[in-house]
Write a structure and sequence with these properties.
By secondary structure, the chain is of the alpha+beta class. The protein contains 2 helices and 2 strands. It has helices spanning about 5-20, 30-50, and strands at about 55-60, 65-70. The chain has a two-stranded antiparallel sheet. Helix 1 packs across helix 2 (about 30-50). The longest helix is centred in the middle third of the chain and has 21 residues, at about 30-50. The two termini are about 30 Å apart.
């Protein structure tokens, strides 16, 4: 997905730069590190979206968060 390339490139660039700054060889970003950062960014974005009133969630019986759009009223007070 082309839209994710700049985002992932920036994550990799920052991870490699951190290793360079810390003098930790090899100067690479592992797939695990990239996935971990993506997961953290997704969690933060979901929290932001809830705070902004775009989505809400509940947890199912297995403790898995289930997300949905928040229903908004239209001009005629009909719930969409």
């Amino acid at each position: 997905m082309i839209m994710l390339q700049p985002y992932l490139y920036e994550i990799i660039r920052k991870l490699v730069q951190k290793r360079l700054d810390d003098h930790v060889c090899p100067y690479v970003a592992s797939e695990r590190e990239v996935f971990f950062q993506v997961h953290r960014d997704i969690e933060a974005t979901l929290i932001e979206m809830e705070e902004d009133g775009l989505i809400s969630h509940y947890e199912n019986v297995n403790g898995i968060k289930m997300f949905r759009e928040i229903e908004k009223e239209d001009e005629d007070n009909n719930v969409q």
